[in-house]
Amino acid sequence: MQMSAFLNFLQSSWLATLLDGSRYIAMTVQIVHILGFTFLLALVLAFNLRVLRLALRTLAVGHMARALERPFLITLLVAVIAGSLLFLPRANTYAANAPFVWKMALLLGASAIQILLLRTATARVPRSARVQQAGSGAYQPPVAQAYPTLVYHAAWNAPAGTLNTSALPAQDLAHDVETSWLFRAAALLALLLWLGTGVAGRVIGFV
Amino acid sequence: MLYDTFVHIEQLQGVQTFTESLFAYPLVQGVHVLALAFAVGLLAVADLRLAGVLLQQHPERAVLGGLRPWFIGGFTVLFITGVLLFLPKATLLYASPLFWVKMFLILLAGINALYFEFNYRRARIPGGAAAWYWLAPRTAGLVSLSLWTLIVVLGRLLAYF
């Protein structure tokens, strides 16, 4: 089936007709799309800036990746689904729009690299960390409940500089995932691709 | 009187030049939307940490402290671009009730942020914060998150109404 025929098929489908019918549905889908990618960019920014050591330098990369992986995938899914619903009623128009095609390419690249980075960071929790906890049996990833509440509140209220980091079991910084220059370069590339996706998305309306 | 001020603003030479330029307004709009990711996005991550939903294993102070310079920078850019976006359309926005609601919510969000800054960050009441203040840190985070989500939604709807 040819591309144009496929796009025509999409554009004339029952779902596209439904979406195009009401102004309110279109508005709602747009809002969901914007909220979705805003939170997606937030998670991506937080992680990539950490890898590049520009922000949140005291946080462990491996644990951070583990915590952010699922929210990242969920927000990506929401943004992509909403985006698809925006695309459907005007499939032909968007396909002919150069910034849109760029946006799709940049989005694909950014998502692929980001998923790779997150997977690598979560999978590569170093053996030494496991060896350290060999006495207690199998490696147990840190969970919120295992975090002693007393230490938690002390951590929040402690005056700056007096924090006893050795009392925080989840923050095993000495055995953190080593972020090689390649890993950081990939994080920078991913960041630029994400920002590019955002810019391309904005330009769509102006071409 | 406010309306007359807005009319006057729109007629300023600088504002006229800004409106007439093909690229300036869309560019500022683009920067405004991108700054959203830094400002509202990273603040949302910090708020979710406060609410205990995200990054629970990491100390609150580290997450909030680490993100703070970034979302403050983001809000600065957001504010500046926001003012620039307002200037050429002052009278139009004056007539829009959505705009005034958005401004009011921004004011509320600002008050919430100041409240948090002065009371929790300085840890004036060590360990007993929840008991003394009627707004616990967790609630402050959720309030901030809800307000900013609503503000973003209203910002989008401004284009329609």
Structural overview:
The complex is a heterodimer of chains A (207) and B (161). With 207 residues, chain A is mostly helical. Chain A is 69% helix and 0% strand. Chain A has helices spanning 3-11, 14-21, 23-51, 61-87, 91-95, 98-123, 127-132, 149-157, 181-203. Mean pLDDT of chain A is 77; it is low at 127-161 and 163-175. Chain B has 161 residues and is mostly helical. The longest helix of chain B has 27 residues, at 24-50. Chain B is elongated, with a radius of gyration of 18 Å. Chains A and B meet through helix 3, helix 4, helix 8 and helix 9 of A and helix 3, helix 4 and helix 8 of B.
Structure characteristics:
heterodimer; A: 207 residues; mainly alpha; 9 helices; 69% helix; elongated; B: 161 residues; 8 helices
How would you summarize the topology of this molecule?
The complex is a heterodimer of chains A (207) and B (161).
Chain A: H1 3-11, H2 14-21, H3 23-51, H4 61-87, H5 91-95, H6 98-123, H7 127-132, H8 149-157, H9 181-203
Helix pairs in contact in A: 3-4, 3-9, 4-6, 6-9
Chain B: H1 2-10, H2 13-20, H3 24-50, H4 60-86, H5 90-94, H6 97-121, H7 129-132, H8 137-157
First and last CA, distance of chain A: 28 Å
Subunit arrangement of the protein: heterodimer
Strand segment count of chain B: 0
Q: What is the 3D form of chain A?
A: elongated
Largest interface pair: A-B, 48 and 37 residues
Order of helices and strands of chain A: HHHHHHHHH
- Which structural class matches the secondary elements of chain A? mainly alpha
β-strand number of chain A: 0
Biggest pleated sheet of chain A: none
Percent strand of chain A equals under 5%
Percent of residues in helices of chain A: 55-70%
Spatial separation of the terminal alpha carbons of chain B: 24 Å
The biggest beta sheet of chain B reads: none
Helix content range of chain B: over 70%
Computed over alpha carbons, the radius of gyration of chain B is 18 Å
Poorly predicted runs of 5 or more residues of chain A: 127-161, 163-175
Mean pLDDT of chain A: 77
Which structural class matches the secondary elements of chain B? Answer: mainly alpha
Query: Strand share of the residues of chain B?
Result: under 5%
**SSE order of chain B, as H and E?**
HHHHHHHH
